[in-house]
Design brief:
CATH architecture of the largest domain: 2-Layer Sandwich
Number of domains: 2
CATH topology of the largest domain: Yope Regulator, Chain: A
Structural class: alpha+beta
Largest sheet: 8 strands, antiparallel, barrel
CATH class of the largest domain: Alpha Beta
Number of helices: 7
Strand content: 35-45%
Strand order of the largest sheet: 7-9-10-11-12-13-14-15
Order of helices and strands: HHEEEEHEEHHHEEHEEEEEEE
Length: 285
């Protein structure tokens, strides 16, 4: 036999399974419905988020986590995600915040912090192999992510994603403290009648704000930043759902605020095309 023939025979023998050895069994994979049923049987409150994703509520004394669960496109992994904040303009976030997040990735492994470039949402995610998953194993993974969410509050809290305010900005914010009742509301070009508009109130307490409808329904809450741009006083709003840029003017007890999720407005008017909202408010007596 030639050297080439001998080498070919050796290689062929190496890839021939020994007699009696069967191929490994194909792992059982959960379907989306199977995943939801298992989470429900484990006692978690669940809610459908579209056709392929499920919201999972993890409640324990003094803490609650909201996690989404869904399968990867090829079905080989179960993704558990916790969403914290939508970063409308990542470039405005202090560099120290991004450094702190990157540093904590090592601590939370195998979970990982990531910023989705399309939705601009910050997530803490955990990938679980979808192979012969048992209820006990799934509960362990959910509890692990829940624990890491609580432990990393100092990293993902909203205040970390808000640009610092100047001393001049703070002086502009102080006169806005208190409760304001809406008298005019043009929501992205669509005006509300005066009676409906009057049902909305804005409360400012330091840098914090709440925008409510009626007595109890909170529409928005978060943090305000004031400053100056183009010679006009600015008033920007930051919430976990994203941020808007605005301009404002204060005439005695009347506050006029115009803001947009896009470019900063240059005039006080609500507009559908630029998604600009106008609020005129009176200080509550």
């Amino acid at each position: 036999m030639t050297r080439i023939g001998l080498a070919s025979a050796v290689l062929t023998a190496a890839f021939v399974a020994p007699p009696g050895r069967a191929d490994p069994p194909t792992p059982t994979r959960l379907t989306n419905d199977g995943l939801v049923k298992m989470l429900t049987k484990l006692g978690y409150e669940t809610r459908a988020l579209g056709k392929t994703s499920t919201e999972v509520i993890v409640d324990r004394p003094g803490w609650q986590s909201v996690i989404s669960a869904h399968l990867s496109t090829d079905g080989t992994r179960i993704w558990l995600d916790a969403w914290f904040v939508t970063v409308t303009r990542p470039e405005d976030v202090p560099a120290a915040t991004w450094k702190k997040i990157l540093a904590r990735n090592e601590d939370v492994s195998p979970a990982v912090f990531s910023l989705n470039p399309k939705s601009k949402r910050l997530f803490l995610s955990l990938a679980v192999p979808n192979e012969d998953v048992t209820p006990a194993a799934l509960r362990k993974e959910v509890e692990y992510l829940d624990t890491q969410i609580e432990k990393t509050q100092d990293v993902w809290k909203l205040a970390n994603f808000v640009p610092p305010m100047t001393a001049e900005g703070r002086k502009r914010l102080d006169p806005l403290a208190g409760t304001w009742t809406v008298t005019e509301f043009v929501d992205e070009g669509k005006p509300l009648d005066s009676e409906e508009a009057a049902g909305f109130k804005l409360t400012v307490d330091g840098e914090r704000f709440r925008f409510v409808k009626g007595e109890k329904t909170t529409i928005r809450s978060g943090q305000l930043v004031t400053g100056t741009a183009g010679g006009k006083p600015t008033l920007d709003r930051y919430t976990t759902g994203g941020s808007v840029r605005g301009i404002f003017k204060l005439d005695d007890d009347t506050l006029t605020w115009c803001f947009s999720a896009g470019d900063r407005p240059t005039r006080f008017a609500g507009d559908e095309k630029t998604r600009t909202t106008l609020l005129v408010l009176k200080r509550a007596k």
